[in-house]
Structure to design on (138 residues):
């Protein structure tokens, strides 16, 4: 009996590998696009110990990953999951662009290491990701 359960569970490993690979690819694409659209180089700033950049980018990554995880859990096909992943990517990109309009100094504040704008941007990104995830009901 335990062998039957194990065999049944193992049948899903191929789907797991495909969805995990696709999710990680979407995450890498998101990070690449996000660091490309920002006027500062988050990775270099983070390597130099800039906590504002780390908070900002971490919030954006989590704000993308949460709805992506929801899409993985709820989608019936890989294409559907990828479509919702693209929606999550677009929403997070839009969050940065809107926040840059609302707080024009953010483009210089984060590289300068001003923590408050970085934490705020990361928090707005995370909150938007949670809302985005909740709206993905189908």
């Amino acid at each position: 009996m335990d062998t039957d359960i194990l065999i049944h569970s193992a049948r899903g490993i191929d789907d797991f590998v495909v969805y995990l690979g696709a999710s990680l690819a979407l995450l890498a694409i998101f990070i690449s696009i996000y660091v490309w659209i920002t006027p500062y180089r988050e990775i270099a700033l983070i390597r130099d110990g800039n906590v504002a950049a780390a908070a900002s980018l971490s919030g954006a990554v989590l704000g993308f990953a949460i709805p992506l995880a929801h899409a993985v859990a709820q989608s019936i096909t890989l294409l559907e999951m990828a479509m919702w992943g693209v929606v999550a990517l677009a929403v997070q990109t839009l969050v940065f662009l809107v926040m840059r309009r609302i707080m024009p100094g953010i483009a210089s504040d984060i590289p300068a290491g001003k923590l408050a704008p970085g934490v705020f941007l990361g928090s707005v990104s995370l909150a938007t990701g949670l809302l985005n995830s909740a709206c993905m009901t189908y």
Summary: The first helix runs from residue 2 to 10.
